[in-house]
Amino acid sequence: MNKYKKLEDAVKQQLQQVSTATLHTALFKKGLRNTYIQGVSRVNHSQVKMVGQAFTLRYIPAREDLDTVAAFKDPEHPQRLAVETVPEGMIMVSDCRQDASAASAGSILLTRLEYRKCAGFVSDAGIRDFDVAASMDMPIFCAKPSAPTNLTKHHGVDLEVPIGCGGVPVYPGDVLVGDGDGIIVIPLEIVAEIATEAVRMEKFEDYVINQVRAGSGVIGLYPPNDQAQQAYDEFCKS
Question: Do 53 and 15 contact (CB within 8 A), yes or no?
Fold first, then answer.
């Protein structure tokens, strides 16, 4: 199923060290503004940071004559097929048109994804069985709890195609990083560059925080003027 370059382990380790806030700024400096998935938050507070590549599922609005309970008996039903084919270590990302009035998954499918070692589940709709999901180890992000079955609003049509999730374009193989602040989408082609820049930025920010805790003012320190930059360079040498 993988038609794109695999995320390198070294880059993945870098991404696990940095925040989504830092990644957003690194991408913004690169000219990419629309990289933060809107309207979703982390369901569970697992210590597992979500880092992985996108395996996409696209929905269109449901239609009553097609989206009946019997539709789930079809082994080729896109939602069921996605759950059973997402490769280990990848993140299942659902485009539900930011309509959270129905669920996009529930405890059974989420448990199956966790068993199959999926790296995370992301949807701009709701999920059912929210309390169960909150206790799972696999990172789960969605808009809100939502009891209605997905059949009432969402008709699955495509796997592994470009989608929009929370207003952000997500291409198959793109890299997603999720933490308590939300999810950032990074184009695969520049992920190594962005990861390196984010690590560099956070190293400096750690230094800044220590200076602020010691009583330093922010003006001239962050961003640094020439004097502050020189002091930081000396700190790094020591």
Answer: no
CA dist list (Å): 186 to 52, 171, 195? 10, 10, 10
Q: CA-CA distance, 229 to 223, in Å (whole number)?
A: 9
Alpha-carbon separation of residue 81 from 63, 72, 78, 175 (angstroms): 20, 10, 5, 22
Burial class from Cβ neighbours inside 10 Å (0-12, 13-18, 19+) for residue 219 reads exposed
Q: What is the pLDDT of residue 1?
A: 38
Q: Give the model confidence (pLDDT) of 43-92 as tens digits.
A: 998 677 999 999 999 999 999 999 999 999 999 999 999 999 999 999 99
> How confident is the model at residue 2, as a pLDDT?
47
Please report the DSSP string for 186-211 in residue order: E-GGGHHHHHHHHHHHHHHHHHHHHH
- Which domains are assigned to the chain? 9-193 (3.50.30.40), 199-237 (no CATH)
Q: What is the pLDDT of residue 33?
A: 97
Q: Which DSSP string corresponds to 97-108? A: TT-TTSBS--HH
Select from 136, 124, 134, 55 the least CA-distant residue to 89: 55
Task: Using the predicted structure, report yes or no on whether residue 202 has a pLDDT greater than 50.
Answer: yes
